[in-house]
From TrEMBL:
<dbReference type="InterPro" id="IPR008978">
    <property type="entry name" value="HSP20-like_chaperone"/>
</dbReference>
<dbReference type="InterPro" id="IPR052289">
    <property type="entry name" value="Calcyclin-binding_UBL-bridge"/>
</dbReference>
<dbReference type="GO" id="GO:0007507">
    <property type="term" value="P:heart development"/>
</dbReference>
<protein>
    <submittedName>
        <fullName>CYBP protein</fullName>
    </submittedName>
</protein>
<dbReference type="GO" id="GO:0005634">
    <property type="term" value="C:nucleus"/>
</dbReference>
<dbReference type="Pfam" id="PF04969">
    <property type="entry name" value="CS"/>
</dbReference>
<feature type="domain" description="SGS">
    <location>
        <begin position="41"/>
        <end position="118"/>
    </location>
</feature>
<dbReference type="Pfam" id="PF05002">
    <property type="entry name" value="SGS"/>
</dbReference>
<feature type="region of interest" description="Disordered">
    <location>
        <begin position="58"/>
        <end position="77"/>
    </location>
</feature>
<dbReference type="InterPro" id="IPR007699">
    <property type="entry name" value="SGS_dom"/>
</dbReference>
<feature type="compositionally biased region" description="Basic and acidic residues">
    <location>
        <begin position="58"/>
        <end position="69"/>
    </location>
</feature>
<dbReference type="InterPro" id="IPR007052">
    <property type="entry name" value="CS_dom"/>
</dbReference>
Amino acid sequence: RSFDLLVKNLNGKNYTMTFNNLLKPISVEGSSRKIKTDVVLVMCRKKREEKWDCLTQVEKESKEKEKASYDTSDPSEGLMNLLKKMYAEGDDEMKRTINKAWVESREKQSKGDIPMDI
């Protein structure tokens, strides 16, 4: 359940890319490729026509682990985990926006404008 892509003599260099642990088996006979001036397109045919949520087994496990971190009994904990992830992966503008919203929320709570238990 894997395949190798080998591109020979592209600007004088050879390139290899390996896709290991595909989620499900593919049909080599039904698969095809298209080579254009700036891209190589590999189209893999599934052995059984069914929806894949991701390409590899590793990607599936990663998504399940990420999903589990958001599935908590406390909804505010799930929201906090999401905000932490957005902050960690976001650019500087995203971080400024989250910080601003956090500060404004804390100011409103300290003034008594909104209840502490949301």
